[in-house]
Specification:
- The strands form 2 sheets. The protein has a 6-stranded mixed β-sheet with strand order 3-2-1-4-8-5, sandwiched between helices. Strands 6-7 form a two-stranded antiparallel ribbon.
- The chain has 5 helices and 8 strands.
- It is an alpha/beta fold.
Length: 161
């Protein structure tokens, strides 16, 4: 149904927990989600393996070594098996209704681009997304303590190839 692709930072320090939480969240939403972890950041390949995701090391980069947006999108389109794609920052935890929303978007006949922004909350612990109790606690805390990020911070792009 959908391919999620992202290019994480090195899995070090606080980014290890933040990104592991995100990848674990994506995988627990559905085993049918195709996930691409792209780029050569430290720990990316291992994180992809842990989360039953595909690892694509070689992607186009700028002269500074940063993955390029066109390179990420073209690579994802080339290797994906789905017609619906989602570029997502590697620190984003998706809501439980994400797959319901994707089922609505996949029905759109024409090409489209959906964009959005996030709600910010600091999480410094590993979340067990398979535990109903931990999920309930996380979402309760998130509703109570998160702050809506200004709409200038676009964090995901959903589109048809």
């Amino acid at each position: 149904m959908i391919t999620i692709f992202s290019t994480p930072k090195n899995f070090e320090d606080e980014f290890e927990i933040i990104q592991e939480n995100a990848l674990s969240n994506w995988r627990t939403l559905s085993n049918q989600i195709e996930i691409f972890i792209m780029g050569d950041s430290i720990g990316a390949k291992e994180a992809a393996i842990r989360n039953n995701s595909k690892y694509i090391k070689d992607i186009p980069v700028s002269t500074h070594g940063t993955p390029t947006i066109p390179g990420l999108f073209q690579t994802a389109e080339r290797f994906c098996h789905n017609n619906l794609l989602c570029y997502l920052n590697a620190d984003m935890i998706l809501p439980p209704n994400f797959m319901q929303i994707m089922k609505s978007l996949v029905k759109i006949k024409n090409k489209f681009l959906a964009v959005g922004h996030r709600w910010d909350i600091d999480i410094d612990y590993k979340i067990n997304f398979k535990s109903e109790k931990e999920l309930e606690k996380f979402w309760t805390d998130a509703r109570k303590n998160s702050i809506r990020h200004p709409c200038t911070g676009i964090d995901y792009f959903i589109f048809k190839k």
